């Protein structure tokens, strides 16, 4: 089980994967937007998305959990 | 002279414009988003009005609301600052239609110079040297590859309507080009609503040197020397200085004369900047023109003694420039650093709440601030929260003062790029003036991840 965490504070611009979806190492899961910059947050290992912890438009702080991958 | 101005902007530049207006006895109207309700610039203006939401589309890009407030408050002119609506020809036209003075050039000139392909064509006609490349938008990746083959790799892929490094990428072979073309085109379409791309020869190890011009509506134009802005990251300027440590007097005067000739050719008025790449042999190539006041204008003010905002207002009031090229002095050396709310290692944005702010003081130190000691730095806007401008009689003296000022600059509560700035200006290569555009990649690697 791995937690996918936000690497910066910002709003969730897009969620590009779904719960239950198989993902590969390096695949983008969530795109954060902050201060005119978009940062894709990618899976650090292959697995299945067990839970998405955020919705589009949510504000997250650095370190907040975005998704759980198992 | 204009008696009342609305400032259609936020942050340090709004405060900066208000300061000059107060000096000139001009009344000011600030407009602000919800997120900026407690920002310093709001309190500085004579009147302030909320634009509504916090997102830029709801606030600083809300043309209808801005014009409505302008009408209700009886202002004569709108100063757009930089960014937001400052290079929006439609906005300038809407101001004209509403009977308001847009403090900037004519809408048709903004439009012409806002499109890189158009600007390139115009500047070529005016006799400016251009980087070898293409003069019309590319049809597709295959055409891009054919052009790249002709002018030779490496090449730079650029969005015609781009800015801030978006839609721009250096490419060193055909494989990279085909991958980069589509991605950058999509990004340009998303950000600017225009996916037109063009390509030019990549000038290796260049300097980014720009010429500040000022022109009135009577056909008079002067150049206010140059600024060197070569220290950049992700094509965004971090350190700017005037004069350049690299140019000799002959090249400086040649670039200035070319810039003046070009702005006269396009019927330009107000403040503007022509950006150039300068190669190791001091050949210069036109890049683009910014038809507005620039972030780094203070270093020009410091070495010339002129207030550029004041000159903009004088010109917009329909008056002639009251000085000629021979009257413009160049004294001392000035360096500006941009202070960003960002992680100094990753460059990721770092919004949050400032809990303490202690600014250095002393001879030759100037602050342009967007924040105060308890400001909330919102994720909705640009990460630049302040500019530190330091001047001295020589470049060495300016660097020495800047280093001391950065050492004593304290911002708590958020991450900032202050450690990165200190690292840059303390580097031996910076002291020597070895500041090509790859400076950060080349010398400051240990801070980046």
UniProtKB/TrEMBL annotation, chain A:
Against InterPro entries, the record matches this protein to: Biotin_Carboxyl_Carrier/Decarb (IPR050709), Biotin_lipoyl (IPR000089), Single_hybrid_motif (IPR011053)
Keywords of this protein's UniProt record, alphabetized? Biotin
Q: Does the keyword DNA damage apply?
A: no
Xref: Pfam families: Biotin_lipoyl
In what residue span(s) does the Lipoyl-binding domain sit?
1-70
Q: Which PROSITE patterns match?
A: BIOTINYL_LIPOYL (PS50968)
**Source organism superkingdom:** Bacteria
The reply to whether Nucleus figures as a keyword in the UniProt entry is: no
**PANTHER family hit by this protein:** OXALOACETATE DECARBOXYLASE ALPHA CHAIN
**Protein name, please?**
Acetyl-CoA carboxylase biotin carboxyl carrier protein subunit
TrEMBL record, chain B:
**GO BP of this protein:** fatty acid biosynthetic process
Q: Does the keyword Nuclease apply?
A: no
**Catalysed reactions, as listed in the record:** N(6)-biotinyl-L-lysyl-[protein] + hydrogencarbonate + ATP = N(6)-carboxybiotinyl-L-lysyl-[protein] + ADP + phosphate + H(+)
Source organism, top-level taxon: Bacteria
Which keywords are on file for this protein? ATP-binding, Biotin, Fatty acid biosynthesis, Fatty acid metabolism, Ligase, Lipid biosynthesis, Lipid metabolism, Nucleotide-binding
Question: Which pathway does the database say it acts in?
Answer: Lipid metabolism; malonyl-CoA biosynthesis; malonyl-CoA from acetyl-CoA: step 1/1
| Domain Biotin carboxylation as annotated: residue spans | 1-445
Which segments constitute the ATP-grasp domain? 120-317
This entry's Enzyme Commission designation comes to 6.3.4.14
Question: What Pfam families does UniProt report for this protein, alphabetically?
Answer: Biotin_carb_C (PF02785), Biotin_carb_N (PF00289), CPSase_L_D2 (PF02786)
Which GO terms of the molecular function aspect are on file? ATP binding; biotin carboxylase activity; metal ion binding
UniProt keyword Hydrolase, yes or no: no
InterPro entries reported for this sequence:
ATP-grasp (IPR011761), BC-like_N (IPR005481), Biotin_carboxylase_complex (IPR050856), Biotin_carboxylation_dom (IPR011764), Biotin_COase_C (IPR005482), CPAse_ATP-bd (IPR005479), PreATP-grasp_dom_sf (IPR016185), Rudment_hybrid_motif (IPR011054)
Job of this protein: This protein is a component of the acetyl coenzyme A carboxylase complex; first, biotin carboxylase catalyzes the carboxylation of the carrier protein and then the transcarboxylase transfers the carboxyl group to form malonyl-CoA.
Q: How does it assemble?
A: Acetyl-CoA carboxylase is a heterohexamer of biotin carboxyl carrier protein, biotin carboxylase and the two subunits of carboxyl transferase in a 2:2 complex.
Q: What is this protein called?
A: biotin carboxylase
């Amino acid at each position: 089980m791995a937690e996918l965490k936000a690497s910066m504070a910002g709003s969730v611009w897009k969620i590009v994967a779904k719960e239950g979806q198989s993902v590969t190492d390096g695949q983008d899961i969530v795109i954060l937007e902050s201060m005119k910059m978009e940062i894709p947050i990618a899976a650090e290992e292959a697995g299945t998305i067990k839970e998405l912890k955020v919705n589009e438009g949510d504000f997250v702080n650095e370190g907040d959990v975005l998704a759980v991958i198992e | 002279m204009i008696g009342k101005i609305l400032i259609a902007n936020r942050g340090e530049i709004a405060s900066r414009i208000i300061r000059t207006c107060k000096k000139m006895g001009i009344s000011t109207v600030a407009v602000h988003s919800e997120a900026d309700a407690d920002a310093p610039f709001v309190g500085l203006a004579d009147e302030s009005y909320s634009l509504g939401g916090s997102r830029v589309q709801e606030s600083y890009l809300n043309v209808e609301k801005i014009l409505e407030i302008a009408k209700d408050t009886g202002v004569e002119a709108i100063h757009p600052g930089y960014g937001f609506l400052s290079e929006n020809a439609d906005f300038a036209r809407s101001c004209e239609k509403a009977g308001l003075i847009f403090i900037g050039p004519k809408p048709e000139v903004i439009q012409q110079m806002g499109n890189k392909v158009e600007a390139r064509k115009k500047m070529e006609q005016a006799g400016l040297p251009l980087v070898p490349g293409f003069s019309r938008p590319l049809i597709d990746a295959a055409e891009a590859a054919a052009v790249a083959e002709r002018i030779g790799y490496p090449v730079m892929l650029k969005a015609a309507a781009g800015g801030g490094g978006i839609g721009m990428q250096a490419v060193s072979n055909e494989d990279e080009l085909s991958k980069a073309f589509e991605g950058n085109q999509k990004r340009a379409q998303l950000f600017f609503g225009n996916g037109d791309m063009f390509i030019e020869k990549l000038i290796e190890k260049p300097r980014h040197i720009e010429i500040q011009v000022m022109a009135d509506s009577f056909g008079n134009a002067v150049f206010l020397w140059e600024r060197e802005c070569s220290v950049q990251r992700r094509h965004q300027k971090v350190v700017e200085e005037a004069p350049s440590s690299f140019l000799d007097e002959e090249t400086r005067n040649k670039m200035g004369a070319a810039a003046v000739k070009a702005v006269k050719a396009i019927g330009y008025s107000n403040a503007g900047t022509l950006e150039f790449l300068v190669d190791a042999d001091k050949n210069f190539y036109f890049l683009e023109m910014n038809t507005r006041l620039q972030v780094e204008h203070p270093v020009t003010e410091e070495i010339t003694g002129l207030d550029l905002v004041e000159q903009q207002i004088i010109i917009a009031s329909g008056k002639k420039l009251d000085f000629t090229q021979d009257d413009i002095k160049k004294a001392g050396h000035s360096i500006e650093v941009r202070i960003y709310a960002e992680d100094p290692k990753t460059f990721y944005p770092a919004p949050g709440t400032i809990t303490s702010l202690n600014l250095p003081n002393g001879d030759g130190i100037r602050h342009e601030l967007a924040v105060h000691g308890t400001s909330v730095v919102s994720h909705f806007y640009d990460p630049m929260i302040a500019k530190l401008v330091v001047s001295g009689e020589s470049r060495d003296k300016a660097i020495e003062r800047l280093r001391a000022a950065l050492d004593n600059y304290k911002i708590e509560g958020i991450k900032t790029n202050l450690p990165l700035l200190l690292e840059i200006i303390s580097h031996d290569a910076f002291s020597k003036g070895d500041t090509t555009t790859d400076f950060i990649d080349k010398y400051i690697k240990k801070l980046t991840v």
